[in-house]
Give the backbone structure.
Amino acid sequence: MAAGKFSFTGSGEVLVRSGGRTLAAAGDVIVIGDRVFRLAEVDRVAYDAAARPRQASYALGLACGAVRSRFVFDAFGRDELADARETWRRLVELVESAACPRIARAAVDAIAAGATARFGSGGLRRIDADAEGLRRWRWFAPKVPWAGVLGTDLRAGQVRVWTGGPEPELVTAMAGWNAVVLPRVVGMMLAQEKESPRNRE
């Protein structure tokens, strides 16, 4: 594809220009402006998309320790929308394959060691996870035990946790740090729950 607002190759390189900034991805490295993120070292990710028939907006955030950056790009019109969707698909696949599994594993290991893992932005939409289960980040919020969680999904810009009711029990925005990793963590924790001795008796 010719260089322009969106540029990508068959070998996986991606280049996006938006608002005077540039995002470039190649191999396991994503560069946002002057910040270089090696996906093997990234400890927080965030991404979300809002698409309508004639326009769309995409955002990708990466962080490693105190260094963090978010990149937003928009698309308008049929041709630009098609290029933006393909660019977005490649970026998400790269982050999901090269960073998210490791971040999820680290969260599960931290939970097993007695720590609390946090998913989503600050305030009432954040979801905390510990060895006992999940809860909203607020005083006296009830905890959903792991045994009561049926699953999670990503839909309409949200990460949703289901317990069997007609509405999700917990919801947070995909745009919050590591929110998109929560389904992986829940899957791993539920697998451990099934394998626990008390559930095999």
